[in-house]
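Cross-posting from the chemistry board since nobody answered there.

I work mostly on the small-molecule side, so proteins are not my area. We synthesized nicotinamide-adenine-dinucleotide and want a rough idea of how it might sit in this target. Sequence and SMILES are below. Is it possible to get a predicted 3D structure of the two together?
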Amino acid sequence: MRISVIGCGYLGAVHAASMAELGHEVVGIDVDRSKVELLQRAQAPFYEPGFEALLSASLASGRLRFSTDIADARDAVVHFLCVGTPQKRGEYAADLRYVEAAVESLLQALKPGDLVAGKSTVPVGTAARLAEVVAGKVPGAMLAWNPEFLREGFAVQDTLHPDRLVYGLPAGSDAAVARALLDEVYASIVAAGTPQVVTDHATAEMVKTAANSFLATKISFINAMAELCEATGADVIQLADAIGHDDRIGRKFLNAGLGFGGGCLPKDIRAFMARAGELGADQALTFLREVDNINMRRRIRMVELAREVCDGSLLGKRVAVLGASFKPDSDDIRDSPALNVAAQLELQGAIVRVTDPAAIPNARREWPHLDFADTAEEAARDADAVLLLTEWRTYRELDPTAFGAVVTQKRVLDGRNALDRDTWEAAGWSYRALGRRAG
Ligand SMILES: NC(=O)c1ccc[n+]([C@@H]2O[C@H](COP(=O)([O-])OP(=O)(O)OC[C@H]3O[C@@H](n4cnc5c(N)ncnc54)[C@H](O)[C@@H]3O)[C@@H](O)[C@H]2O)c1
């Protein structure tokens, strides 16, 4: 099949290379010339395990290319929209200007019979509105919404082996045509028995925001329990283990810590609340405001904890921050809890040095006033406290004995409940974590 992918960021670039891997002829289009040049040279513009190998193989197969020219989408029959939908500045709502601009430019390349398949996360109602634009300008062209559930860090695996496919189809006779096109795109995934949910535009859009809201709620639930554990001396890890044994609850996403960040969960729950307000259903989602509040309070608590262990004042204290990306195995620093905490520590007078296996270039660009180091040892040299804020494997596997030799004070704050407390304490460290007793 001939496919175009409009917007080649974390989502679109992986989608484009994966569609070529499935055997399709793919053109990836982006307005960012430098990104397109990198991709065309088989260089990943971002860190994502397995992506660069997939990109090289897909380019070498001759089935994948990248362009800045929307006219190159003319040969394609299915056009995936993968542009960003960030939070509007100063508002909760999603900023749809990139989606609108992408559709507007795509209109020049569309033919009757083509399918526009939206993958970006959009407020419910967007697809129906865009479908009218598409059909109005190019009679016979159709629009479906096919939300994406990939996780950064597992993006290649999740795109090639998704746990479900959701098709939000247009009404009427176009539905069957659009479904057949999407089934052809995902033929091998469908043949593997992947569950499909075939529905309307609005449900498909809501599936994505509902899924993210549920995940955010689960994280904030356990972090609310962590707040109570801190107030009572109970232990949030044992609590999560115990409630997680109930398979109606499940242990996944019950890891108490610094909370969620990134380019999806925070802005998606806010956009969902804003959209509910527009629809006169804001009461249905007021709980998400509390989910957001609990999440943000963890960052403040982490700074307080750092002050506490630094004998009540951060002024002039050397603090090492392990992790800058919003999650491990990614260089994405959008709304990164780790950088947010690092910046607050610095504002309160600490001498902060941040390290990360992949995200330092991005972090340095966004937070030029912070100090960066290439390794954990370098970041922690002469430190008064070490904060683990993003649980990269390399930090989880640090040898506390050897690592203890570089710091001034063996104080570790485990912002992700990812270290083995007993091993660190046995090596002479004082260990503190969110939701757990002081040692
Ligand atoms: N990153 C994820 O893990 C993930 C997962 C699921 C869904 N999503 C959703 O996918 C969408 C994209 O997210 P992302 O993380 O890839 O964002 P991103 O910022 O990494 O990528 C967006 C890309 O779109 C390009 N772009 C903007 N306007 C364009 C236009 N008019 N024509 C062509 N290209 C254009 C930008 O240059 C950029 O490269 C968002 O709606 C997001 O919520 C992301």
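Reply from a structural biologist on the board:
Welcome over. Reading the output above for you: DSSP finds 18 helices and 14 strands in the chain. The chain has a mean pLDDT of 98. Happy to explain the token format if needed.
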